[in-house]
Design a protein that fits this description.
The complex is a heterodimer. Chain A is an all-alpha fold. Chain A has helices at 2-18, 24-48, 73-96, 101-122, 126-144, 151-182, 187-193, 198-214, 223-226, 232-241, 246-258, 264-285, 289-310, 313-344, 355-358, 360-374, 380-393, 399-427, 435-444, 446-450, 452-474, 476-482, 484-490, 506-524, 536-559, 564-586, 599-617, 621-641, 645-666, 682-705, 713-724, 729-737, 739-764, and strands at residues 53-58, 66-71. Chain A has a two-stranded antiparallel sheet. Chain A is elongated, with a radius of gyration of 34 Å. Chain B has a domain at 7-77 and 121-152. Chain B is built from 6 helices and 2 strands; from the N terminus they run ααααββαα. Chain B has a two-stranded antiparallel sheet with strand order 1-2. In chain B, a hairpin with a 3-residue loop joins strand 1 and strand 2. Classes of the chains: A mainly alpha, B mainly alpha. Chains A and B meet through helix 29, helix 32 and helix 33 of A and helix 2, helix 4 and helix 5 of B.
């Protein structure tokens, strides 16, 4: 059933891209229905039954890989987030986009992404997770670059793809190591195996690299703000609520397995803390409201990383709860900023206050979500942030624990500060809407304003998200009890509960101080800031990228000199060198494998040799080409005499065509071969030719003389008719037994033909 | 490479050669499974016929005929080969696994069809396309270089540099 859900989401995506291009709204509606059904399915299966249900599809039996999904508590929570938020964002997008080709592409990619993400959170083993993981990277790339006419969007998409793609490769390597070492990549089986030692350490580091690139942890955090080039629905869904949580999901699943392996805990905590503080700091300084939210996402992801990294029983629970809280308030905020952008045409924090009067409901909803982000009672964000502090205060006061606690406190101060700063921006009443922008925008949006349905679709999800934050905060105890099972599915020891009013304790006091300090900083932080320079990470990335490209060009310039004599000379020398090495090292017998054949064969051979000499000495190119053809024909005759009609036929035809091609090409060359060929001296060329001419026959003699196993021909003869239904073994080998080789060969042929066509075309210009 | 005088020959070649050659080439391709032949040889055979037609005919014939869009043929051929390779995966087999179908056709008798024949047809198409593409690229200046120089300085196809 779960696979049906995943498949249905992909199917809607594919259908939109192929069949429903003209009717994107219909496709989106279909998508909403599918996502809603998936959510219901997950809820019905997951919440009711206490035991985990798992499903498997056989795939790649040769490698022992199957697609395994399971619906344990954590998967239920994540799958619900993915499907419910997906449906909400899709509803929103109906009003947000113009219904043109771009929207159709958006819906298609969006649904494909939803399907991949759904699969990712349900994955029961690392391999399955990896497959969906890579898919989400690809969809994310395409969605960031949705506006393919914008250079900056394309660049951001490439940065995101290369960063997450590199992380994906690390993840694959880690999965490979685990599969080889422990024969499984299943989370539960790995936990039972209890990996330790160098291989486990290497795998752990690789997994962390994967998780950190995907979830934008320092120093890979730079791609996420860049990804904001995507339309708001994409940012809200992929780059805040779901995809960037993939790394967190991986951490959550693997932390119980690797928590005690090597650098795991240290690295996770330090990366998380640095990311949280850095993201918070940047969020406090950005002017574009969307970038503020992007950096706040980076910061919150840092917090989640810390929570899952420290591996404390309270921390895991707090992490699960905060994933939920963050997804809800952040989606509301992103979509809210999108609405403001849509209405007044700006996201500048010093100007968005102008939207307050036009849309009081949306503004109120955003205020609630902001308060949730700041962690103010009675919203859900308060309860979960509180839990995080409780968990970190409960840690042992060793170095890791202190770093984690101190970092999270500083990070929390910053997150209160940027929330309050944004709050102030939203509530600011002293900005008048800029006439020009409003005018320019309202003409585009004329029909939007007229429709109530459009307004509901736009602000509905924002309001609902805020309402959920509030309602869940008020009923924190009940909501908290639902999250116990999901936490236990990650870590059997996980316990805790949420509460609206936890009573006065260390955490509450810390929290009060954090809020007070943060509020002051946030209130005093300037809304307009001089333009910030590009993020350092981005510059480092671009530097690396450019250097790689330059290096590639240099290497190409050195290795591809464009001189035919050099190409041929190098190729022949390397080949001959390898053969000589074989002859010298093994020192095989040279005689014993030779059959002399008939006098007629000897005659043909002599003819071939004479013709070959002719090729070398003939001055007119035309004659040389004909001699070469003659050699080929003579060899074809030898093939025929030796009982290889297939080879003979092919050789004959190839020679014929080659001569024609030669003659066609010769028309545009000088009549005679040159005496002076660049800087390859004649002696050198002669030496190479003679040397290769001696080595190759010697090697062939040795090869024939030293056969130690029977020829595989017998086996092919035996299998040919039964298995492949053919009596011509040569052909059966080509199309069946060694079909992969043939496929490679025809691809080479095709590429060569394309090369010839393009070379000729370019030369003609 | 001399034209004009051999009008009858070129007429014959134009009219019949490619048709007969196609027939033979396809036959060679199909018989390849049990007797000498196969997609590669078949493709080369048809390619050789095209070359002959090209050599015998007027220059534009290569562009007008025999197959307008060899790039398309190339793609179709590659797809056929890839498809045959990957199709068994869908059916739960391993790549390139052969499936053998036997049909009882009235009058003709039992006809055996092996799935790898499709692969061979892909090879066939690729080879034909490659020959045509190279021929077109190198040969657009025409069979009679001297005779057709003026007309053959073609606009779009380019030609061998001089």
């Amino acid at each position: 059933m779960l696979f049906v859900a995943i498949f249905a989401q992909f199917a809607v995506g594919g259908l939109t891209l192929v069949g429903l291009r003209r009717r994107p709204a219909l496709a989106a509606a279909l998508g909403v229905v599918v996502l809603a059904c998936s959510a219901v399915l997950v809820a019905a299966r997951g919440i009711g039954g206490a035991e985990t249900s798992s499903y498997s599809v056989r795939w790649l039996p040769i490698l022992g890989f199957n697609l395994n999904v399971q619906l344990d508590g954590f998967a239920v929570v994540m799958a619900l987030l993915v499907s419910v938020l997906g449906a909400a964002v899709l509803v929103y997008s109906l009003a947000y986009f113009e219904h043109d080709g771009t929207y159709a592409r958006f819906v298609g990619l969006f649904m494909a992404f939803a399907g991949s993400m759904f699969g990712l959170v349900l994955a029961e083993d690392l391999f399955t997770m990896f497959v969906f993981w890579e898919l989400t990277s690809v969809w994310s790339f395409l969605l960031i670059g949705l506006n393919d006419k914008s250079t900056s969007a394309r660049q951001a998409a490439v940065r995101a793809l290369l960063t997450t793609g590199a992380g994906g490769l690390c993840l694959l390597a880690g999965v490979g190591i685990l599969q080889v070492q422990y024969g499984t990549t299943s989370f539960s089986e790995l936990l039972a195996a209890g990996p330790s030692g160098n291989f486990a350490h290497a795998a752990a580091i690789l997994l962390l690299l994967g998780a950190f690139t995907k979830s934008a942890q320092f120093p890979f955090h730079f791609w996420l703000p860049g990804a904001m080039a995507a339309p708001t629905p994409v940012s809200a869904y992929l780059h805040s609520a779901t995809m960037v949580k993939a790394g967190i999901v991986l951490l959550a699943r693997t932390s119980p397995i690797f928590a005690d392996v090597g650098v795991w805990r240290w690295w996770v905590v330090v990366a998380g803390v640095v990311t949280m503080v850095l993201g918070g700091w940047r969020a406090l300084r950005e002017v574009d409201a969307k970038l503020v939210l992007a950096y706040s996402t980076v910061s919150q992801l840092g917090l989640l990383t810390v929570l899952f990294g420290v591996g404390n029983r309270y921390a895991t629970y707090a992490g699960v709860a905060h994933i939920v809280a963050h997804a809800i308030f952040k989606v509301g905020l992103f979509l809210g900023v999108g609405v403001i952008d849509h209405e007044i045409g700006t996201r500048d924090v010093s100007k968005i206050g102008a939207a307050r009067r036009a849309m009081p409901t949306t503004t109120l909803a955003m205020v609630l979500s902001l308060l949730s982000m700041a962690g103010i009672i009675p919203l859900l964000g308060f309860a979960t942030k509180e839990k995080a502090l409780v968990a970190l205060l409960d840690l042992e006061r060793d170095a890791v624990g202190v770093v984690a606690l101190a970092g999270v406190v500083v990070g929390s101060v910053l997150s209160v500060a940027y929330s309050i700063r944004l709050l102030r921006a939203v509530l600011r009443s002293d900005v008048a809407p800029e006439r020009s922008q409003v005018a320019a925008h309202s003409s585009v949006d004329a029909d939007h304003h007229s429709s109530v349905a459009v307004r509901i679709a736009l602000s509905g999800p924002v309001v609902v998200a805020a309402a959920v934050s509030l309602a869940a905060g008020l009923t924190a105890a009940t909501v908290g009890s639902w999250l116990v099972a999901p936490s236990k599915s990650l870590d059997v020891n996980a316990v805790s509960k949420l509460a609206l009013w936890p009573g006065i304790n260390d955490a509450l006091i810390t929290s009060a101080i954090v809020i007070a300090v943060g509020a002051v900083i946030g209130w005093r932080a300037p809304l307009s800031q001089s333009a910030t320079s590009a993020a350092t990470g981005e510059r480092v990335f671009d530097g690396l990228y450019d250097t790689t490209m330059r290096l590639a060009k240099r290497i190409t310039a050195v290795t591809q000199s464009g001189s035919l004599p050099i190409y041929v000379g190098v190729t022949l020398l390397v080949a001959a060198g390898a053969l000589v090495a074989g002859l010298v090292i093994d020192a095989p017998r040279l005689t014993g494998g030779v059959s002399w054949g008939s006098p007629l064969e000897a005659l043909v051979s002599i003819v071939a040799m004479v013709l070959a000499v002719g090729v070398a000495v003939a001055r007119p190119r035309f004659a040389g080409a004909l001699f070469l053809g003659g050699v080929g024909y003579a060899i074809a005759v030898l093939f025929a005499m030796r009982g290889a009609p297939d080879l003979a036929t092919t050789q004959l035809l190839v020679e014929t065509l080659t001569i024609v091609v030669f003659l066609l090409a010769l028309r545009s060359m000088t009549q005679k071969t040159g005496t002076h060929v660049g800087w390859t001296p004649r002696v050198l060329r002669l030496g190479i030719a003679v040397g290769v001419g001696i080595v190759v026959p010697l090697f062939l003699l040795a090869a024939r003389a030293s056969r130690i196993r029977p020829s595989p021909a017998q086996e092919y003869f035996a299998r040919s008719l039964d298995e492949a239904g053919g009596r011509n073994v040569v052909n059966v080998i080509l199309v069946d037994f060694r079909g992969f080789d043939t496929m490679g060969e025809i691809v080479v042929l095709a590429v060569a033909a394309l090369g010839v066509v393009n070379l000729v075309r370019r030369a003609a210009r | 490479m001399k034209m004009r005088s051999s009008a009858i020959l070129s007429e014959l070649v134009d009219r019949w050669l490619t048709k007969v050659a196609t027939l033979i080439a396809v036959y060679v391709t199909f018989r390849g499974h049990n007797a000498p032949g196969g997609g590669f040889a078949g493709g080369l055979l048809l390619g050789a016929a095209f070359v002959l037609q090209f050599l015998a005919g007027d220059e534009p014939s290569i562009r007008r005929r025999p197959i307008r869009n060899p790039e398309m043929l190339l793609g179709v051929g590659l797809l056929a080969a890839f498809g045959t390779t990957l199709a068994p995966l869908i059916a739960g087999g391993s790549p390139l696994e052969s499936y053998i179908w036997k049909l009882d056709v009235p009058v003709i008798g039992e006809v055996k069809f092996v799935s790898s024949t499709l692969f061979d047809l892909g090879v066939f198409a690729v080879v034909v396309a490659v020959v045509l593409m190279i021929l077109r690229a190198l040969g657009t200046e025409g069979a009679g270089v001297s005779a057709h120089r003026g007309r053959a300085a073609s606009r779009d196809q380019g030609g061998a540099p001089r």
